[in-house]
Amino acid sequence: MTGFRKALLVLVVLAVGGALVYVNLTFERATGPEVEVEAVERRSLQAIVSASGTIVPQLTVDISADTMGRVTRLAFNEGDRVARGQFLMEIDPETLRSAVDRGEASLRASRSSQRQLEVAIDTARVNLQLARDNLVRQENLWELRLVSREAYERALTDVTLRETELRAREVDVETQRERISQEEANLTSARYDLTKVTITSPFAGVVTRRNIEEGETVVIGTMNNAGTVLATIADLSVLEAEVEVDETDIPSVELGQTAEVTIDALPDQIFTGIVTEIGNSPIQATQGAGTQATNFKVVVTLDDEIPSVRPGFTCTADITTAVRTDALAIPIQAATVREVVLDANGEVVHQEAAPRRGVTPGVSAAARVDGRARRNDAAKELEGVFVARQGKAVFLPVKTGIAGDRYFEALSGVTEGDLIIVGPFSEVRNLEDGDEIRVVDPDAGASGGGGLFGGFRRAGGGAESR
Amino acid sequence: MTDTTEPDSHGNVARRASGRDMGLIGRLVGVIVAPRRTFEVVVRHPRWLGVLLVVALFIAGASSWLVSTELGQQMLLEQQVSAMESFGITVSEEMYAQLTRRLASAVYFTAGGVLLSIPLVTLVIAGVVWTVGYVVFGAGASFRAMYAVVAHAGAVNIVQQLFVVPLNYARGAMGNPTTAGAFFPMLEEGTFAARTLGLIYLFVVWQLFVLSIGVAVLYGRRTGPIAVVFYLLYAVIAVGGGFALSRMGG
Questions:
Q1: Does the beta carbon of B90 lie under 8 angstroms from any beta carbon of chain A?
Q2: What are the pLDDT digits (tens) for A70-127?
Q3: pLDDT-based confidence at B97, cuts 50/70/90?
């Protein structure tokens, strides 16, 4: 090998070595996870409290029997629309009708007796008058001593006797009059009982349930034994959604708030209504694994009739508890909690990720786990978001307001246009303040270029690329 | 010492005897600066123990020194985490803690691994090349001579360590900075091209060239065809490995 070739070889080796050193120390490969960002924008937000429950009519009546007996006539079927006062069924009336007849006969007999007693009074009055006339005569004769004292006293006693007899007859008439009143009351009661065998609809509605067949015997309820519920009639012109709201949401629910109700059986339809009732008594519901959830009943009265609805349909009510227009909105999935260090003014002291070059005094390899520096005692957990700035994730504490479907209202902490890191969730969960990131352009696809040789990485890759 | 080989009428390279021997240091330096002349000496006097010990001890010392430093441990931890995550493994806090605990013993594992693997790898390479040479060129070389040639080719690894360890320390990363991929930082990580270029180590290219010279000297053949075969095999391995890694690692 000639000296020239040797020198050339040495030069080539040095050049390659120098180039290696240069590229390794100059072109540092961008590191950090790929993240997706979304700019902070002003949006209209609605705070929604969702709860599930069932559709119920506002007015529902269970028709029960007031008298026992066999059903002899039945004039309705389940699902029938019935008018107010419309005949529904009849329970065997014979016994009660006999009772009415018996009462009427008894009343007539009592009135006849009363008339007899009134005649007896007249007789007693005549007898009394005769006795008094006789007493006058006996007094005159006694003054002339023409009759014995015995005759005179007998005439006197006879008057007293007749007076007593008259009072007795008068009492008899009064007693009979009371007896007639009693008979009349009994007859009225019997007639009323007779009306009970005929059952009519108490209001216009729909028969939502029929539990009886013609020929069956119904029983009336007692204190410990429920009677037969013959049918259920519901007024479907006013419907309600009875939902159970979690105790944490119930303070924000108020009467008059609007709600959108979706019914599972009627997909793709949304019904509107307003909150008309908020329960004060908790409902203990058992969830999975035996955990107890405390809910409260909230009633949403629907604005419109729903022809095809059935009581008991399951539904979900989205109650709008607050509305914000033109609010700074941050995506819900971007919100996270981190331990941050605050300075004397309450501002966040941003932690620089441990540098990739050189020894960092005080940051040992053991303390640095995936770029996470150990926090000191002044650290405080705050809710916030990560924003992408110059290829790094910067944690900003955020004070949130209402929560919409996909966005939180940001009361402070971010400004319009900030690029919020929204995903992937696994990366947002693991990010730390100051971590290096690579922003993915969602329009470019997830792979960053396909084919066997892949694509070229975008320069920079930070927030400025958007 | 002058070049003592020349091709005959069949293209083979005949060896001419040379009376001078070389010491251990001389052979280590000679493999770098004058490989053909050095391998002629090695083939005549096939000694391997000394050079193998020096190469293994030097590499073990350099590697374990880097790992023993605070930065080296930090780099090693990041490399392990990065490797696991590149294969889709989510490293939990417990796994981090476990990896961190193992850092204390990383020095011994690194040194032990190097001291154990270098003789074994040398043995495997020597065995494969000697077997292929036996089939292709005939029984013209002893296995001892082949083992000595492969062991001496390992001297390139000393130069590699001298270059890589300071560079790694300076840039704060544990990966090999001497791959062809280093010249293409614009390539997306994990792609086939990046993976393939990342498997082409420039010092291995040099080592294969040196080994080609040694094998040529051993069998009295021309260096060029042997080097081409080595490079083709290496290219196939790099392309296959790059394809597999790009598919597996994502």
A1: yes
A2: 999 999 999 899 999 999 999 999 999 999 999 999 999 999 999 999 999 999 999 9
A3: confident
Cβ within 8 Å, pair A355-B103: no
Pairing of strands A379-389, A392-397: antiparallel
CA–CA dist A299, A56 (Å, integer): 10
| Opening angle at CA A252, ends A249 and A253, nearest 5 | 90
Tokens of A309: 């609805």
CA distances from A193 to A180, A216, A300 (A): 20, 20, 40
pTM of the model: 0.46
Unique residue bearing structure tokens 């320390």: B169
Q: Which residues contact A81 (CB under 8 A, 6 or more apart)?
A: A204, A205, A206, A207
Interface of B with A in 184-243 (CB under 8 A): 185-194, 202
A434/A419 Cα distance (integer angstroms): 15
CA-based radius of gyration for chain A: 49
How do strand A205-210 and strand A217-218 relate by DSSP bridges? unpaired
pLDDT along chain A (466 residues), means of 10: 76 83 69 81 89 92 88 91 93 93 94 94 95 95 92 94 95 94 94 92 90 88 73 90 92 93 91 94 71 87 88 92 89 86 75 44 38 52 88 88 86 89 80 81 38 30 28
Distance from CA of A27 to the nearest CA of B (A): 6
Residue-wise pLDDT for A116-158, tens only, equals 999 999 999 999 999 999 999 999 999 999 999 999 999 999 9
The per-residue DSSP string of A206-251 comes to: EEEEE---TTPEE----SSS---EEEEEEEEEEEEEEEEEETTTGG
Q: CA-CA distance, B72 to B168, in Å (whole number)?
A: 9
Tokens of B247: 């598919």
Chain A residues whose C-beta sits inside 8 Å of any chain B C-beta = 16-17, 19-21, 23-25, 27-29, 354-359, 364-366, 368-370, 426, 448-449, 452-457, 459
Task: Work out the average pLDDT over B128-144.
Answer: 89
A161 by DSSP, 3-state: which?
A: helix
Helix, strand, or coil (residue A389): strand
- Nearest Cβ partner for A453 among B170, B171, B193: B193
Instruction: Return phi, psi of residue A267, to 5°.
Output: -65, 160
3 state SS of A148? coil
Rg of chain B (C-alpha set): 20
Q: Is B165 on the interface with A (CB under 8 A)?
A: no
Which residue type sits at A223?
M
